[in-house]
């Protein structure tokens, strides 16, 4: 597998994970005040995944993909 293909696969995987994290955050917000204690954890996971996704997309773009 080439570097570009590897980066594309990473972007796809991170995109799926980030979308799920976004939905988890959305679901949590709809259920408030139930489980309000988990807001920082769920939000941090969502933030981290979107940061990784952004970096992976930038890496792919820099690699010419």
Please state the CA-atom Rg, rounded to the nearest Å: 15 Å
Mean pLDDT: 96
Provide the CATH superfamily.
Helix hairpin bin
Summarize the main sheet.
none
Query: So what's the CATH class?
Result: Mainly Alpha
The H-and-E topology, N to C, reads as HH
Examine the coordinates and then state which fold CATH places here, giving the name of the CATH topology. Answer: Helix Hairpins
Q: Name the beta content range.
A: under 5%
Keywords: Coiled coil, Nitrogen fixation
Organism: Magnetospirillum sulfuroxidans
Pfam family, one: Rop-like
Family: Belongs to the UPF0437 family.
Helix-strand blueprint:
Elements: H1 3-31, H2 39-62
Helix pairs in contact: 1-2
Compact summary:
With 65 residues, the chain is mainly alpha-helical. The protein has 2 helices and no strands. The model has no long low-confidence stretch (mean pLDDT 96).
Could you explain how this protein is built, in words?
The structure is a single chain. The protein has 65 residues and is an all-alpha fold. The chain has one domain (3-62): Helix hairpin bin (Helix Hairpins), CATH 1.10.287. It is built from 2 helices and no strands. It has helices at 3-31, 39-62. It is elongated and about 45 Å long. The mean pLDDT is 96. InterPro entries: Helix_hairpin_bin_sf (IPR029012), Put_N_fixation (IPR007774).
């Amino acid at each position: 597998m080439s570097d570009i293909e590897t980066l594309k696969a990473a972007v796809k995987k991170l995109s799926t994970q980030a979308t799920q994290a976004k939905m988890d955050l959305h679901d949590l917000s709809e259920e408030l005040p139930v489980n309000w204690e988990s807001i920082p954890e769920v939000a941090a996971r969502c933030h981290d995944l979107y940061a990784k996704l952004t970096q992976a997309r930038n890496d792919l773009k820099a690699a010419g993909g």
